[in-house]
């Protein structure tokens, strides 16, 4: 049955292709017919672009986010500390640089699987302007404190194209971000006895659903956009996620392209872990610059 289906699909494509080729060789065609065929050619060039609708796509590059981070971590007795703004209270730079990579496998004309990975590490040293409670210690005013925040973000998605045309696709996706976070502070003392430190690490799985669109703007230019949102509350875990991306691709040579875009992610997590209460709110947005390599056979996108 599968072979018969493939044969029928190929036949349906071969017949109009053969008919168009024959028509182009007829010298007696009218001006109107020539214009129609020329428009059809312009409409179908997206079928054979080296960067578009390939079976596999690998992307790697840099992300330049502007961050906004708030954290509140309680002590082992279950009491909350105070809310800490990492940029204002601890001197973290709002701007940073992150590496990320993606992989996409187009299973069929309408279905695709994707995987993404982001890594962002930040640190600072600052003399405190106010008293800070974090886990089991109080960090006093005028104390010198060093702090860090390491975040690994993995994502897996499944996308389905409701509309699948040679020049554009629009669909829905479902997936999950998994945030691996580690946050810590250390009081810098004159002697080893005066030093103490605390850290809070967690894993936050955050499912999301969204919409996406992919458009061919020209032989070398493409556009991609997506928007995702989800909120979930399970027992002692409460999380919310919103993300978006808009990027423009320029095909440099054959299967190799460069992509410039703008990406944002907002995460909020409330959780309780062995009497240790934690609140984490992190938002970032900024430009991306990546290299993209597409390979494998073309996935046929039908006009009708």
Task: Report what the structure shows.
With 304 residues, the protein is mainly beta. Helix content is 12%, strand content 61%. The chain is built from two helices and 14 strands, in the order H-H-E-E-E-E-E-E-E-E-E-E-E-E-E-E. It has helices at 2-24, 31-44, and strands at residues 54-63, 66-73, 84-85, 98-106, 111-127, 132-134, 137-139, 144-164, 168-187, 196-216, 221-234, 237-253, 256-273, 276-298. It has a ten-stranded antiparallel barrel with strand order 1-4-5-8-9-10-11-12-13-14. It has a two-stranded antiparallel ribbon with strand order 6-7. Strand 4 and strand 5 (111-127) form a beta hairpin. The longest helix is centred in the first third of the chain and has 23 residues, at 2-24. The chain is elongated and about 65 Å long. It starts with a helix and ends in a 6-residue tail after the last strand. Mean pLDDT is 80; it is low at 1-42.
DSSP strand tally: 14
Percentage beta strand: over 45%
Helix and strand composition category: mainly beta
How are the strands ordered across the major sheet? 1-4-5-8-9-10-11-12-13-14
Average pLDDT over all residues: 80
- Low-confidence region ranges: 1-42
Helical content band: 10-25%
H/E order of the elements? HHEEEEEEEEEEEEEE
Q: In this structure, how is the largest beta sheet organized? A: 10 strands, antiparallel, barrel
Number of DSSP helical runs = 2
Whole-number radius of gyration? 26 Å
Termini separation comes to: 23 Å
Please state the overall shape, judged from the principal axes of the Cα atoms: elongated
């Amino acid at each position: 049955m599968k072979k018969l289906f493939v044969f029928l699909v190929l036949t349906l494509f071969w017949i109009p292709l053969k008919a168009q080729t024959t028509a182009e060789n007829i010298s007696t065609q009218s001006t109107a017919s020539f214009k129609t065929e020329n428009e059809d050619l312009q409409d179908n060039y997206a079928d054979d672009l080296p960067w578009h609708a390939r079976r596999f796509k690998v992307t790697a590059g840099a992300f330049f986010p502007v961050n906004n981070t708030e954290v509140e971590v309680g002590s082992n007795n279950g009491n909350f500390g105070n809310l800490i703004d990492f940029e204002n209270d601890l001197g973290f730079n709002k701007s940073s640089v992150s590496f990320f990579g993606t992989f996409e496998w187009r299973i069929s004309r309408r279905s695709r699987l994707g995987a993404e990975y982001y890594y962002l590490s930040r640190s600072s040293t600052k003399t405190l302007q106010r008293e800070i409670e974090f886990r089991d210690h109080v960090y006093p005013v005028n104390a010198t404190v060093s702090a860090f925040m390491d975040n690994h973000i993995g994502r897996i998605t499944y996308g389905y194209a409701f509309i699948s045309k040679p020049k554009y696709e629009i669909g829905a996706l479902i997936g999950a971000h998994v945030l691996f976070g580690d946050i810590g502070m250390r009081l810098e003392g004159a002697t080893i006895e005066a030093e103490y430190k605390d850290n809070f690490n967690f894993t936050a799985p955050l499912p999301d659903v969204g919409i996406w669109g992919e458009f061919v703007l020209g032989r070398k230019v493409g556009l991609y956009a997506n928007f995702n949102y989800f909120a979930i509350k399970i027992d002692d875990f409460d999380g919310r996620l919103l993300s978006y991306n808009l990027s423009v691709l320029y095909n440099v040579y054959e299967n190799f392209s460069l992509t410039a875009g703008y990406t944002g992610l907002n995460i909020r997590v409330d959780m309780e872990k062995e009497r240790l209460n934690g609140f984490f709110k992190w938002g970032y947005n900024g430009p991306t610059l990546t290299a993209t390599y597409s390979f494998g056979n073309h996935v046929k996108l039908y006009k009708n």
